[in-house]
Amino acid sequence: xxxxxxxxxxxxxxxxxxxxxxxxxxxxxxxxxxxxxxxxxxxxxxxxxxxxxxxxxxxxxxxxxxxxxxxxxxxxxxxxxxxxxxxxxxxxxxxxxxxxxxxxxxxxxxxxxxxxxxxxxxxxx
Length: 125
What we know:
Layout: E1 2-6, E2 12-19, E3 22-30, H1 39-47, E4 55-60, H2 68-85, E5 89-93
Parallel strand pairs: 1-4, 4-5
Antiparallel strand pairs: 1-2, 2-3
């Protein structure tokens, strides 16, 4: 099974548990404030009573409309879970479940958030 984490939708986090192309379980929460704090409890509730996933994927936004913090939080959560569970982590495009051949996108050791442009997080004086 695969855990899919989607933080690309503004003020919402969604976690899916996939078995191939089939969605086994889904959990979603509104996150108007402190969204990063909702990710792990949401995943814990989704996995309660189920076996640990064999892979973790995080959704990236190919159009670059998702917020910097949202994308970073999703990538950090996916990387941390992959590391803790010893499972592969991959990044997939928004709306993609599996590739045409029925296989997950190529797993990498770590995923990097993809942004539309360089983050502007420093104040200029």
